[in-house]
# Entry
Amino acid sequence: MSNLLVQNIKHTNGTVAQTIDSTGRITTPARPVFKASILTQTGRSTHTSIEVSPYDTVQTNVGSHFNTSTHTFTVPVAGEYFFSISQNKYGKLIVYLYKNGSVFHAGEFLHDSGSNWEHCTISTVVTCAVDDTIQARHKLVDNGGTQYAWNGGSPTWDSFSGFLMG
# Structure
């Protein structure tokens, strides 16, 4: 097996910002990325007003830019970001991606299968400036019956994620 030539590009503090090997593979270990779940939240939302979705546990949080107390991602580097919200629901639900306190993108999931959990996902690309804030929010649409905005309790069912594309 031959040795691959590796070139590391470093930050001024000495940490590796980018690696390029002789096959052209590029890694960027300091690139902002997060994936959060509703894990420790015990009460499922049953309100029909717009609420911040309580993504309270991170599985990945490169750079620590996602805050589990405020459920907010704060943009560290200007650029194009990809965000995805994936939520279990019981009833009718609207999922929102907020940028700086205003709706940027949304998806309506108004099919109500009665007594079955369903899954909904929205994703989008957002042009961001440094210190922009991104949040997942939701609103249950009154269906006259039992409904929940998330399942929670596991990193599998509900997730909010994002990363810097460039």
